[in-house]
Amino acid sequence: MKNPMLEVVSLLLEKLLLISNFMLFRSGATGEDKGRNSFYETSSFHRGDVLEVPRTHLTHYGIYLGDNRVAHMMPDILLALTDDMGRTQKVVSNKRLILGVIVRVASIRVDTVEDFAYGANILVNHLDESLQKKALLNEEVARRAEKLLGFTPYSLLWNNCEHFVTYCRYGTPISPQSDKFCETVKIIIRDQRSVLASAVLGLASIVCTGLVSYTTLPAIFIPFFLWMAG
């Protein structure tokens, strides 16, 4: 049986991670054609390489399949709305991506290197060094990625693009980005100042709105849970 408290905490962490990256996605919306105008020298890429696109607050990953093709996990709201491959195969816009993250639907799809990178610089197999893990043979990596192509559930914490590439590359799905975010949240929760801040905000909301259930209960339980977790 699933622990309801763990499910609530997991949901809150995912929403916090989504909010923390929302401005990044939003800022990228003004330059959605940038990647289409960029050129990448793919001759140095090998089938099975992990391609890494650094962003301001996160990093996107994919597996190079050869012939200018990259397999990567991409959230997309259209997958929940239509089966029309002609529409879903188009480059995923930032709005489609954000809504896909919220409803937790994604696909492992194949795009060109240009559409995958979207104008950003590309690092190759950087995870090998940062994780210090032994990679599988490149052909095995590529075959794993090809077998997973298609619809997949999405989770910022438990099943994202980093989980996909680390499974393909090393045989184990892990996400240092998600782990780092969770550790940051733990530090915040364990800081007793968070309890005080939440109590003050709760008291202020009660003063402003009165003793109603939708303000009183959070004002009591949020500081209590933070105190217990700390």
UniProtKB/TrEMBL annotation:
- Top enzyme class, one word, equals transferase
Q: Please list the residues that make up the active site.
A: C161
Q: Which UniProt keywords apply?
A: Acyltransferase, Cytoplasm, Endoplasmic reticulum, Endosome, Lipid metabolism, Membrane, Sensory transduction, Signal, Transferase, Transmembrane, Transmembrane helix, Vision
- How does this chain sit within the bilayer? Single-pass membrane protein
GO CC term, one of those recorded = endoplasmic reticulum membrane
Signal peptide positions are 1-31
Note whether Transferase occurs among the keywords.
yes
Could you list the residue ranges that cross the membrane?
A: 195-228
> Which superkingdom does the taxonomy of this entry point to?
Eukaryota
Q: Which PROSITE patterns match?
A: LRAT
* Gene3D superfamilies (alphabetical): endopeptidase domain like (from Nostoc punctiforme) (3.90.1720.10)
Q: Name one GO biological process term.
A: positive regulation of lipid transport
UniProt keyword annotation of Chaperone present? no
> What EC designation does it have?
2.3.1.135
Annotated LRAT domain ranges read: 50-177
Known function: Transfers the acyl group from the sn-1 position of phosphatidylcholine to all-trans retinol, producing all-trans retinyl esters. Retinyl esters are storage forms of vitamin A. LRAT plays a critical role in vision. It provides the all-trans retinyl ester substrates for the isomerohydrolase which processes the esters into 11-cis-retinol in the retinal pigment epithelium; due to a membrane-associated alcohol dehydrogenase, 11 cis-retinol is oxidized and converted into 11-cis-retinaldehyde which is the chromophore for rhodopsin and the cone photopigments.
Name the record gives this protein: Lecithin retinol acyltransferase
* Species of provenance: Rhinopithecus bieti
